[in-house]
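tool_log.txt
---
The assistant was asked to compare two proteins side by side. It first ran the structure predictor on the initial sequence, then on the second. Raw inputs and outputs are pasted verbatim so the downstream comparison step can read them without reformatting.
(1)
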Amino acid sequence: RPQLHSEIFSNIYKYGLGVQDALDHRRFIWHLWTSSVDMEDGFQTASLKGLDINVVPYPSRLGVAGAVEILMNGIRVGYCDIRGEGIPIGLI
């Protein structure tokens, strides 16, 4: 899901969130070629006039992601999305 990846990247690089916070942040999905948007509760929607907004409870199943961060010292840190049932496990 490119849209999900761009949301997570934006949360990290534009808004300065840590990897875990970026994964856990509320999400939205815009259905291409329509005016329909699914978004987790917590977003301000008053300025989104003209869109068909479907608010879903947070956390929802609007995409599930995981990430690995490689620190400057070479240590790898695994992260799991609150929306899934994952667990980061290190393999050597």
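(2)
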Amino acid sequence: MNRHMATALLSIAYLPPVSYFAAMAKSGSALIEVCENFQKQSYRTRARIASASGMEFLSVPVLKGEGHKRPVSEIEIDYKRDWVLLHRRALASYYGSAPFFLYYKDDIFSVLESRPRMLVDLNTSLTVLLLELLGIRCSVGVTCRYFPPDDPRVSGPDVHDFRYAIHPKKTTPPGMLCGGEYYQVFSEKYGFLPDLSAVDLLFNEGPNSISFLK
């Protein structure tokens, strides 16, 4: 790895957006934040995909715990409702006609069907898998302590802190978007939908996905 490249610091994310992997591809090394407190309505439990009615979120339900603030490492997934089946059906319905859906679906569905207890484990497994499928060379580790954004250990030149920059309710900075528009299954109806889950890029562009991330 180029020693002058900064490490990307990222929150955990469920089927993360394209900008998440663009940050990894441009950094060469990444740290996944597992020591922060859990945040609702973020990519930690939500993935943004294209659907027949426009942009849609797939959400992972989690068990409610005691206390207002809980470390993300303690968040357990709620499987009372079979959301895994619902997510599989949604992806198959919306991306079944995508050029590379059949090539990658089994690997992704296999992780979902493993049904890990902890949210961190599910998200990390999916992130590592997508790194491989997208062809990104990036060493990945996890944090062992939380540092706020203004701490010099995460705000200096050696670390790029994306934990709160990549968020479904925030506009993704232009420099973090993929390098150009690519074909999407509903583009004729809705135009190009930016910064969807990386599975959107993968299912549509396959091995060429990496060219949009650097």
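---
observation on (2): The mean pLDDT is 93. Residues 55 and 193 are 7 Å apart (CA to CA).
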